[in-house]
Amino acid sequence: MTGWPGFRLGLIVLATLAGGPSCQSAAGSGTDAAGQEAVVTRRLVEDVFLLSGELSAVRQASIVAPRGEALQIRWMAEDGTDVKEGERVIEFDAARLIQSIEELRLKVRQAENERESRARAVVAEADGKRVAVDKADVEAKKARIDAAVPRELRPAVEWAKFQATAAEKEATLQKARLDQEAFRTSSRSDLEVLRRGEEKARRELEVAEKALLATSVRAPRSGIFLSGNFWQWGPEGPRKLQPGDTVWPNFPVASIPDPTEMEVSAALSEVDHGRIGAGMKTRCILDTYPDRVFEGRIENVGAVAAEAGRSFGLSTARTGFPVRVSLAVTDPIMRPGLSVRVEVLRAAWPQALVVPRHAVHFEKEQAVVVRKGLGGRTVVRVAGCTLVECVVESGLKEGDHVLIP
Q1: How many domains, in total, are found in the chain?
Q2: SS3 string of 338-349?
Q3: In whole angstroms, what is the distance from residue 293 CA to residue 279 CA?
């Protein structure tokens, strides 16, 4: 539906809720043939704001592209097809994914070999450090024994030499022990880094293998298969996904909505933002069933307008502020994607006095009409106006005749 959102303060008779005559025809019913005077009438008047939207499911099962890397769609079910639970609906091209899996398997083997090689080298180097500590310990013990001989039993020069040798051997022993401890710490760190690198490679391989199994997607539930939108540069803008398109991981490829509860997704133009709000009652008319009217209410109006001509989701690309309208009843005739005309009821006057818009003159914040036969102007109180007619609260009564200049 190519509807037009805009403001309309029109007359909608109770017997014609599905559309009714336009404001112009309603106003013209009280005007004489010459178009010089009009009769004040009393009728139901509603302040209606029009929106265009489409039906969408409140709940749906989403189908997204597998994790891993970008995949090309090789085959997919036609948009709008009825599918059964477990039925194949999408097939991705797995050639690139299989090549990636082989590369990841090679990466895992390389990481495993590197870790095992480093572990063997650590064992050999640890033995060398241990031997160095044992040797330094033996040398230090010998030096301590030589240095323990009393000074009176050795020449002064020789005794001083043994003392210096003992101190040197103790320092060598401490250095060997520190080297051994530092090696243990660094080797554990090296092995931990290699182990984590291997685990990361294994996780990547596991994700790729799961993605390979997910290249053949089956319907998670029975329902209508709806393909997602695909963004492309150029004047055509968004379009439905089709075989041959490449999608990124977790990209919403399709959905299967739950038809038991539907709502209306509409868009409010930027210039009209603020004219409607959450809680307002609505009447929703399907384009394909214009004789059916469904009551609803506005649930929320988005605070951020959608970018023009761009949509990555599953809904139709619409510009303006998103509006969500709930429905009081979901009918079996409703299907996702059907166009809907939404009449937002902003205000209503059950028994309002109506005069043509051209019969009302606004002077210094006062509304004035010219009544036939009185030759003077009458100040009236106006509740609201459109380009066609005005609702008068006081100053006139039903059946009065007013002049139209």
Answers
A1: 2
A2: CEEEEEEEEEEE
A3: 19
